[in-house]
């Protein structure tokens, strides 16, 4: 027996230690594997246990005891009362379209694919952009696990479809305040704008129910939707230009009405003054005429012929004295006549 084959040789001892180390590592690995699915479930989560790929049970918050893989598989899901936020990127303008907007001009217009990216058509042929954030809960864990990674893409498509259908059934002013001048005339538009989120939630949940009825449910329910609506940049500039023009036109109309009112008041005052002056002049002329004809009028009231003859004889010399020459004609002698218009 050599020294190398002796039980107390260093090689034998090294091999024994190596075996013990490998055995300990194997035991620890086996224990780790055996207890790999024994875990603590947090209050904001719950677990779905799959037994050889089949749905077995649902474990809420607490200690989960499950066989290790591949016997049982544990999938963590949000708790039943936990609300998850999801921003729908399909409704946003793509990066390529945003980049093209910065360099686009009248000489190089955008292509049809980029021009319509992120924009929705309204019922009155308007264009609007919606930034939608969906808040949902997992109501059917089994369906949610079965759909797996397809849940969120399917939710995005459902939200996009509902948003497209909703905007197509509404006009622009029932989605956002695009024309403020119509707010005072249409009180129902503000109410329809308030119902936009509720109608969108109902439309999404309706389509989720339709999927569930065909056996393709996503296992989720939408509780709330936040919608931020806006107009395209060029449309905003156009609306601002129109609004500015409308305000300027209203201002011009108001100034014209003010000037017209001032002119009307001035014309009325001048007309009143002219009427008063005319009345005063007429009264003055009437008084003068009455004063000048007072003597004649008083003589017309005299009934005594003798008195009239005496007055005639008294006044006639004074009247004839004012004339340069006087020609008398005998009414009984027709040898000399005075013919009007003939030369004397």
From TrEMBL:
Keyword Transmembrane: yes
Membrane topology: Single-pass membrane protein
Keywords: Membrane, Transmembrane, Transmembrane helix
Every Band domain range: 36-243
Transmembrane segments: 17-36
Alphabetical list of InterPro entries matching this protein: Band_7, Band_7/SPFH_dom_sf, HflK
Family according to the record: Belongs to the band 7/mec-2 family. HflK subfamily.
Protein name as catalogued: Band 7 domain-containing protein
Organism: Pseudomonas azotoformans
């Amino acid at each position: 027996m050599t020294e190398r084959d002796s039980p107390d040789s260093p090689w034998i001892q090294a091999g024994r230690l190596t075996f013990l180390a490998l055995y300990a590592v194997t035991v620890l690995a086996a224990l780790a594997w055996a207890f790999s699915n024994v875990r603590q479930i947090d209050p904001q989560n719950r677990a779905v246990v799959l037994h050889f790929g089949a749905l077995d049970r649902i474990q809420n918050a607490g200690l989960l005891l499950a066989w290790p893989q591949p016997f049982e598989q544990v999938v963590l899901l949000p708790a039943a009362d936990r609300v998850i936020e999801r921003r729908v990127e399909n409704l946003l303008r793509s990066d390529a379209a945003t980049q093209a907007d910065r360099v686009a001009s009248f000489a190089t217009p955008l292509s049809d694919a980029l021009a319509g990216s992120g924009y929705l058509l309204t019922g009155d042929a308007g264009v609007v952009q919606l930034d939608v954030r969906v808040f949902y809960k997992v109501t059917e864990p089994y369906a949610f696990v079965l759909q797996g990674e397809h849940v969120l893409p399917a939710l995005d498509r459902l939200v996009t479809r509902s948003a497209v259908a909703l905007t197509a059934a509404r006009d622009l002013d029932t989605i956002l305040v695009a024309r403020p001048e119509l707010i005072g005339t249409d009180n129902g538009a503000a109410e329809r704008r308030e119902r936009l989120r509720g109608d969108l939630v109902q439309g999404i949940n309706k389509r989720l129910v339709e999927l569930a009825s065909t056996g393709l449910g996503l296992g989720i329910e939408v509780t709330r939707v936040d919608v931020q609506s806006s107009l395209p940049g060029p449309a905003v500039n156009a609306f601002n230009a129109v609004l500015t023009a409308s305000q300027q036109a209203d201002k011009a109309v108001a100034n014209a009405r003010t000037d017209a009112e001032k002119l009307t008041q001035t014309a009325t005052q001048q007309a009143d003054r002219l009427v008063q002056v005319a009345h005063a002049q007429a009264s003055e002329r009437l008084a003068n005429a009455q004063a000048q004809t007072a003597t004649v009028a008083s003589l017309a009231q005299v009934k005594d012929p003798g008195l009239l003859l005496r007055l005639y004889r008294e006044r006639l010399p004074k009247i004839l004295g004012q004339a340069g020459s006087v020609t008398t004609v005998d009414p009984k002698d027709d040898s000399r006549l005075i013919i009007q218009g003939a030369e004397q």
